[in-house]
């Protein structure tokens, strides 16, 4: 083939490629009604829109790490972990494979990924208008209640790794909902900046707060008379009320709750004196029934139930779908004080914080750091809040740098973590306050 023919073919390929990119540059992408701008314009391959990797991940609120050697992106947002290797037809969300319509590509120095895969994996909805070449992405928080109801899943802000009460604080949007330890554990709410602190409920001894679609779900556990007599109030049970305190309804009567979580329109719970069986009831109070037998220390993540099957130490660790299918034993001989975040199982025996990968259960656990405590909360893959055994003070540790920071000089009686905030009851004297664990600032009520 002559040089002229080769040059002509290359020119034709360049023109076709340029025209394709020019046509695709007309695609408009909107997030919650606001148009996004890209340094490299979106392209369409086999009917699938691809957009610059970093821009779409970060715009949707995730943090990313890029491995240039393997051409792999790792993105985290809350309890979502996404991994994807450019060029492959499968990505992974929380360790589970997701098939892509087309693989991601590296073009003209830019890394592009399928917009729909990224958006939907991060909990958003995607709509395409072929006539106007407009794509609308809607954040999960802004979709209709019907869609949200099928996808929401509550993970208690304080759970297996902390010996304290489960669920006495909950962050939802710009509000913190909490049980007030100095006012009979009635329900209050306040803005994230500490303003508008208001009591919204008169039920006492509340716990297991869950906020979903303008409703607060909670339990009560009141002891009548001297605690050693342990006479429980007949008013104990599961309730719901509006986030403004109105519309109080009792969903379950005469039931003392040990643990509680919400997925969609179903509340899962254990009874205080029957923690080996998980029950379920609808959010309207109907359909109360036994859901799972011989399930200890359960945690619901998405459509999956994680649990132990015995209370003796050490324990075996299982998972199964909420519909009872795909049950399997993942690991043997771990502590029952555990917490599932993304694809990792964190647990402790009181000495070391350990981590095991759920999608690779055959691998040996990793010793992350020696903390010598039972009372700790894994906030995310990078941060742990814990109470030292020797001084009962509150600390945070960066799991990457291993730096340990004292959060307050006073000894702590109990603490609960939600978002950036720690609800703290100090021991001597007994006082109550909030600490922002990122800044160490005390949040004052106004």
UniProtKB/TrEMBL annotation:
Keywords: Signal
Signal peptide positions (record): 1-22
Boundaries of every Copper amine oxidase-like N-terminal domain copy: 31-136
Entries under InterPro entries matching the protein: Cu_amine_oxidase-like_N, LRP1-like_beta_prop, Mao_N_sf, SrfA-induced_signal
Domain called Prolow-density lipoprotein receptor-related protein 1-like beta-propeller: residue spans: 160-220, 231-422
Protein name: Copper amine oxidase-like N-terminal domain-containing protein
Species for this entry: Paenibacillus qinlingensis
